[in-house]
Design brief:
about 475 residues; Ig-like_fold; elongated; Jelly Rolls; Lipocalin; mainly beta; 6-stranded antiparallel sheet
Length: about 475
């Protein structure tokens, strides 16, 4: 029989009534006494982790077992699957008040047969799989790895394309969760993939051929896993982690099924970042979806911000556009309203953009030239103490890029887009620019138009003005 330790505390709570006249407290009935809240408990015959609790008094009784479960009645059962110390509280209610008693219960061993919890079963395979369940990165799925702002619910900034991180050390990792002893087995395949900010913590780390860093690593034995906060987070013990390493070992469960798991986690170097990873059960093959016939269209695209446009831009988390008074109504652009494009200052702002998602795949064989007007204020110029750096930043700030993307192939990944740039542009005047995509006319998968002003690799933000965006006839 398991060791059971208990201590008793009891508290009486009297109801207090504030009125204009005195009332006789005795009319409320008897107040529970110490004997009314006394209770006993013992292991049941069926299982030492299932305890029988009893209290002899005939009043209303509410039990709190200290493990998230409760019960009501004179004789109740409490189930304690996991080893640990629990504080059990009995509260007795009468018309005259209430009183509580607490006793501590120590459970000596975890009994996995009692852990019939949905999140445990999905993560480990449950009692029917004592060997546990092994998970791997869903490398074939576009978007299996990505980045977004901390408050996001998905990888808004970046999504890896299918197998994009081959050779990084990410795809040969295996993660096994066992219900027994909450064991976690991390098979690294000899190496791991990590954020550059973690490289100094791993001897032998070196730049990966697909970006960031890889390092040789063998995970320690006897790792453990736990699920906390109402089954919303998975935590791995020290030395263990899941997927691309950013210095943390706690992961928010976004979705979890028997075959698929989608996790969100943070970065202890870049605290504004949220990383995302998709995993599948080892051996699982996604059902092959029927190939839908492609729907090709060529439709007008135009926006002049004076109320004559046929679409509205979608802001990304670091770039935005709003209707604004024309800062320079000169003959090249006499419109009263234009678009004010704001690029955020700080980490992540270098990828700021505005987007036009389409509901169809573009047919750019006959119409493939975009035109727009842009006004780049000179106050966006960035200066540093180094003249070479200063000139580089000035050049990049005087840049406009139009990109065509396929949202099915990983969002912002460079391999999924066509791009035409105009660089070295003049400042403080309206410019009319064209972007010719005839070099990509064999591509038939574009369904998103992205405009980026100010260039990438620039963290200093900026304000620009945009007008008369259109796809030429």
């Amino acid at each position: 029989m398991k060791k059971i330790i208990y201590s008793l505390f009891w508290v009486i709570a009297l109801p207090v009534v504030f009125t204009a006249c005195k009332e006789d407290v005795s009319e409320l009935g008897p107040v529970p006494a110490a004997s009314d809240v006394d209770f006993t408990f013992a292991p049941s015959a069926e299982n030492d982790n299932i305890l029988n609790f009893s209290s002899a008094s005939g009043f209303l009784k509410i039990w709190d077992f200290g493990n998230g479960k409760s019960a009501q009645g004179d004789n109740v059962k409490g189930t304690f699957p996991v080893k640990g110390t629990y504080t059990v509280t009995l509260t007795v209610y009468t018309s005259g008040g209430s009183a509580s008693a607490k006793k501590t219960v120590e459970i000596a061993e975890t009994d996995p047969t009692l852990l019939d919890i949905p999140v445990y079963n999905k993560l480990t395979g449950g009692n029917s799989k004592p060997e546990g369940k092994t998970w791997v990165i869903d490398a074939k799925y576009a978007g299996h790895f990505g980045l977004g702002p901390k408050a996001s619910t998905g990888p808004e900034w970046y999504q890896a394309g299918a197998n994009e991180k081959n050779g990084s050390g990410l795809y040969n990792d295996k993660y096994t969760f066992k219900l027994s002893e909450f064991s976690y087995i991390f098979d690294t395949g000899g190496d791991i993939y990590m954020n550059g900010g973690q490289a100094p913590n791993f001897p032998g780390s070196a730049p990966s051929p697909v970006g960031d860093y890889s390092a040789p690593y063998t995970a320690p034995a006897n790792l453990k896993w736990s699920v906390s906060d109402d089954n919303k987070f998975i935590t791995i013990s020290s030395g263990g982690f899941i997927g691309y390493f950013t210095g943390v070992s706690t992961y928010e469960i976004m979705t979890l099924t028997d075959d698929e798991m989608f996790l969100k986690y943070y970065d202890n170097v870049n605290t504004d970042f949220a990383w995302y990873i998709r995993l599948i059960r080892e051996g699982y093959e996604r059902p092959v979806e029927p190939v839908k016939p492609k729907e090709y269209k060529i439709e007008d695209i135009h926006q002049d911000f004076d109320g004559n446009g046929n679409f509205d831009f979608t802001n990304d988390s670091q770039g935005s556009i709003v209707k604004y008074d024309n800062p320079a109504p000169v003959p090249i652009n006499t419109s009263s309203k234009v678009g004010k494009y704001t690029k955020a200052n700080g980490q992540g702002g270098e990828y700021a953009n505005i987007q036009l998602p389409l509901s169809y795949k573009m047919d750019i064989r006959t119409r493939h030239v975009f035109k727009l007007k842009v006004f780049i204020p000179s106050y966006n110029d960035y200066t540093t103490t180094g003249a070479e750096d200063w000139q580089s930043y000035k050049t990049l700030q005087k840049q406009v890029s139009v990109k065509l993307q396929n949202s099915d192939l990983g969002g912002n990944a460079y391999t999924t887009q066509a791009e035409v740039k105009q660089t070295g542009l003049e400042t403080d005047k309206w410019l009319e620019l064209t972007f010719d995509f005839s070099g990509y006319s064999t591509r038939d998968d574009f369904d998103k138009v992205v405009i980026q002003i100010g260039g990438e690799a620039i963290f200093t933000g900026g304000i620009f003005f945009l007008d008369d965006v259109e796809l030429l006839p």
